[in-house]
Amino acid sequence: MKQTTTDVGILESGSWRQPGHGIIHGLGRLLQGETRGFPAVRAGSASLAWAVLTLALILLPSGCQSHRPTFISPADAEPDRAIVLREGDVVKVTFPGSPNLNTTQQIRRDGNINLALVGDLKAAGLTPSALEKEILAVYGNQLLAPDVTVSLESTAFSVFVTGMVLRPGKVTSDRPITLLEAIMESGGFDYTRANLKAVRVMRRDGERMKTFIIDLKPVMAGGPALPFHLRPSDIVYVPERFSMF
Predict the structure, then answer these.
(1) pLDDT of residue 202
(2) Distant-in-sequence, close-in-space partners of 94: CB < 8 Å, separation ≥ 6
(3) 230 with 159: CB under 8 angstroms?
(4) Is 91:113 a contact under the CB 8 Å cutoff?
(5) How much is the pLDDT for 174?
(6) How far apart are the first and last CA of the chain?
(7) How far, CA to CA in Å, does 127 sit from each of 3, 185, 229, 234, 238?
(8) Averaged in consecutive runs of 10 residues, what is the pLDDT profile of the chain (245 residues)?
(9) Backbone φ, ψ for residue 207 (5° rounding)
C-alpha cells in the first residue's frame, strides 16, 4: 500500500539543527583526546563517552525526525460532504404515497435494512439518493406513487486514537468530530509525554494511506486555528516527546 505524507500547520522560520548535534560533537571532541592534560581521567572519560555516544546514536533517529507543519488544504480539513451509508447508521425511509410503509431502521452488520413487502435490501455503501433509487426499483408498481425519501437520522462515526493520550482506543460518535474532540474523548493528552507539535492523522485514500502532521500546540495555548475534521476510520497518533534522559 502506497503511503503519502502531508505536513499541515504553520511553517516556522529560521534554520534547524538536529537534536543532539551538540552532544555528539562534544563527545567526539572528548574521544579525540581533548582530555589530554588529565591523563588520570582520560581513559575513564573516553569509556563513558563511548557509552553515552552509543546511547545517543540509538535514541537520535526518533528524535531527529523533524516533521514541521506546513500547509493544509480546506478540502482535507473540512467535514466529508459525501454521505455514504455505513453499518450502524440509522436511516429514515419515508413513502409520501404509502405512509404505512414508513420505517426508521439501523443498518445491520451485514449492511442490510428490512423493508415491508420486499424484505432485505443492501444499504451500506450507498448514498441516500442511491438507496432511494434502489428502493423504487425493488418496489416497482407496488407503490401508489413512485416517491421515496431516505434521510440519515444518526451515524456511527468511529475513529481510532493511540499514542500519548490517557485512554487510547476506538472513539465512536453519532456525528462527525474534529481531531481535538477525538483526543479529548480519549481522555486528553498525556502532557508529561505527548508531542503536541506533530500529531499524525492517517487516512485511507483509495488504495493508499495519506498522513497529515498537525501542530496542536498553538490551539492548546489558546491561539486561533481552523478545526481539522476527521473522516470515518481515521487513525490519530499522538507521538511521544523526545527526551534524551
Answers:
(1) 95
(2) 102, 148, 149, 150, 151
(3) yes
(4) yes
(5) 79
(6) 36
(7) 27, 28, 20, 20, 33
(8) 48 37 49 48 54 52 52 70 83 94 95 95 94 96 92 87 97 89 97 95 90 93 89 94 71
(9) -95, 10
Task: Give the three-state DSSP class for 130.
Answer: helix
Q: Using an 8 Å Cβ cutoff, are 20 and 64 in contact?
A: yes
pLDDT at 69: 61
For 144, the grid coordinates are 401508489
- Residue 10, C-alpha cell as written in the block: 504553520
**224: its cell numbers:** 486561533
Sequence letter at residue 69? P
Q: Which residues contact 8 (CB under 8 A, 6 or more apart)?
A: 69, 70, 71, 72, 76, 77, 212, 213, 214, 215, 228
What is the reported pLDDT for 130? 94
Residues ≥6 apart with Cβ < 8 Å to 241: 164, 193, 194, 195
* Alpha carbon 200 to its chain's center: 6
pLDDT for 14: 34
